[in-house]
Specification:
single chain, two-stranded antiparallel ribbon, 2 helices, about 15% helix, about 20% strand, elongated
Length: about 70
């Protein structure tokens, strides 16, 4: 587990191994939220970058008899 320090300006540096694992780039938007007493950082991606990430997913859905 990596520990970071909050600066006097309330800034933190995301450790390099985490930046690389999540492919976080300079000027990328990151959503910050408070959840159950902790801070969570969620990297935001453009919809264009998400294209094809569900490729190969099973889309078959069992239907109710009255919905066929």
């Amino acid at each position: 587990m990596t520990t970071v320090t909050v600066s006097p300006k309330f800034q933190v540096v995301i450790p390099q191994e985490i930046r690389e694992a999540l492919d976080i780039r300079p000027r990328q938007k990151i959503q910050v939220l408070s959840y159950k007493g902790r801070i969570e950082f969620i990297p935001l991606k453009k919809a264009r970058d998400m294209r094809g990430f569900l490729k190969g997913i099973d889309t078959s859905i069992p239907r109710d008899a009255d919905r066929v």
